[in-house]
Amino acid sequence: MATVTLTAENFDEVAQGDGIVLVDFWAAWCGPCRRFAPVFEKSAEKHGDITFAKVDTEAQPELSERFGIASIPTLMAIRDGVIVFAEPGALPEQVLENVIEQVRGLDMDDVRARLGS
Fold first, then answer.
1. Given strand 82-88, what is the order of strands in its sheet?
2. What keywords appear on the UniProt entry (predicted)?
3. Taking the model in full, what pTM does it have?
4. Fewer beta carbons within 10 angstroms: which end of the chain, N or C?
5. How much is the average pLDDT of 109-113?
């Protein structure tokens, strides 16, 4: 599955649905972002049930500000509309796969209870 480009206009629609959304906050000038991109794309091909999305922080500064993105690349994982992971840094393939498995394994009822929602 190809990645989805997120903008201020479509972010909430994509991120607040059911299932898992992985968001890569990146910029064209960012070397680590360019190194992480193929890892992210390869994972998108392997996991057709997950929405893989990208936010160009240069084109969408309001999204960077909204989520407090201070360093790129930053990977954010959203499950069933809840942000369950956000960490800067270009993750190696094995680490990205581990994050995906951990997000898949979450008990979302427990997560919501802990968040008080």
1. 4-5, 51-56, 20-26, 74-79, 82-88
2. Disulfide bond, Electron transport, Redox-active center, Transport
3. 0.94
4. C
5. 91
Residue 54 pLDDT:
97
Q: Tokens 């690349």 sit at which residue?
A: 73
Distance, CA of 61 to CA of 8 (rounded, Å): 9
HEC letters along 95-113: HHHHHHHHHHCCCHHHHHH
Are residues 59 and 29 in contact, defined by beta-carbon separation less than 8 angstroms? no
Known catalytic residues are: 30, 33
Task: Give the chain's largest Cα–Cα span.
Answer: 40
Nearest by Cα to 2 from 57, 40, 58, 56: 40
Which two tokens mark 51? 């929405």
